[in-house]
Amino acid sequence: MALIEKTDVLTVGHDRIDNDHDDFINLLNKLDAAGNADFPALFQQLYEQTEQHFDRENQLMKQFSYPGEAEHKSEHQRVLGEFKQFKSRVDKGLIAFGRSFVKDRLPQWLGLHVTTMDGALAAHINKQPQA
User: Fold this and answer.
1) For labeling, which of 3, 10, 52, 101 is most exposed (least CB within 10 Å)?
2) By CB neighbour count within 10 A (0-12 exposed, 13-18 middle, 19+ buried), where does 61 fall?
3) Around Cβ 35, how many Cβ atoms within 10 Å?
4) d(C-alpha 12, C-alpha 93), whole Å
5) Per residue in 79-99, pLDDT tens?
6) Domain ranges in the chain?
7) Euclidean distance between CA atoms 38 and 36, whole angstroms
8) Residue ranges of the alpha helices (H) in the chain?
9) What is the spatial distance between Cα 110 and Cα 11, in angstroms, rounded to a whole number?
């Protein structure tokens, strides 16, 4: 069974954001099933994909003059900071810390972030005439 299932709850109605979330979910599920030898490289891949996704969202917020930009960007920075702390442990061979982050933290965070912050961003973008 997958750690997290793709559902309509995790879609926001903006293709680029939704595709990034699908990639995140796929990597999260691969990490959950990965052996210890494969875990560090997949964790690195998830970190990089998350960084790129946040950069794309940050560009969208700027492009569409999103009023919640400061708060949303701040959340991105907070999550990347937390990610880096766990990544440093995984890089030292402390795989159990990374597994805990993947299993216990990221699925809940994703659900909340998508349904609140990303949903509001997508709704704002979709109301713009140039979207």
Assistant:
1) 52
2) buried
3) 7
4) 36
5) 999 999 999 999 999 999 999
6) 35-127
7) 6
8) 15-33, 39-63, 69-91, 95-100, 106-113, 119-127
9) 11
